[in-house]
Amino acid sequence: MATYVLLPGFWLGAWAWRPVTAALRERGHDVHALSLTGLGERVHLAQPSTDLETHLADVLNLIRYEDLHDVVLVGHSYAGAAVIPGVADRVPERIARLVFVDSGPLPDGMSHAEFAPPDQQARDAELVRTAGEGWKLPPPPWREVLPGLSPEALDRLEALSAPQPWATATTPVRLSGAWETLPRRHVLCSFTVEQIRELARTVPAFRHLAGGGWDSRDLPGSHWPMLDRPAELAAILHEAAGEPQTA
To answer: pLDDT at residue 205 above 60?
Structure first.
């Protein structure tokens, strides 16, 4: 049995992990899917000051108060880029492995918003200004983004997704490097291993993917595999728990 903490990316809460959570628990694992402040069932706690440090505190407090050890810490998208490296950097002794789901760790000093191309940064900033009261990024048009989901799944996604507090995206990550001692798995959905290796050689934002300590698994599909390929994602996570924990 392994202990998992599952963290969703932008707009989503713990609810998005439900099929993956169920599949891992059926295999005997201890699973904690967490809604970060301002999202999911904690949407009522959102405020302009909700930032990356808030979300780091969410996870650190879960680990502390649930007394979790040897955690397989899983982050999707934003949670992989900014949250799980920040948590592991502060409590590496509690973490067994990091799993980045269609994501990768940002370099120290970079914010999640800065990772996007300039035109996307401008569009997001305008959406925050015009449709997000100046501090929230509205969810995307899910029926255009994920047309392959069932109508029922899309209805649920539209009903439960929430605007992302924008300060979570504009807060730079602060890393000492302690997290880099941990083994890491990359679940690739939008990119291939070859594309990631090329980006790691040429793009500074991908530099953490160029070193050792990584293994990769391909899971082609959308950027949200917990929604469109949950069984396969659960199998990859289960497999990670049984491998030697060496960097």
So the answer is: yes
Mean pLDDT, the chain, rounded, equals: 93
Distance (Å, rounded) from C-alpha 35 to C-alpha 42? 7
Which tens digits make up the pLDDT trace of 77-133? 999 999 999 999 999 999 999 999 999 999 999 999 999 999 999 999 999 999 999
Give me the pLDDT at residue 54, please: 98
Among 196, 178, 192, smallest CA distance to 220 is for 192
Q: What is the pLDDT of residue 243?
A: 61
CA angle 20, 34, 85 (to 5 degrees): 95
CA dihedral 171, 172, 174, 179 (to 10 degrees): 100
For residue 138 the two structure tokens come to 């509205």
The CA–CA distances, whole Å, from 52 to 108, 122, 136, 212, 247 equal: 13, 20, 14, 27, 26
Tokens 């040897």, residue located? 70
Q: Are 102 and 86 in contact (CB under 8 A)?
A: no
Three-state DSSP class for residue 217: strand
CB 196 within 8 Å of CB 206: yes
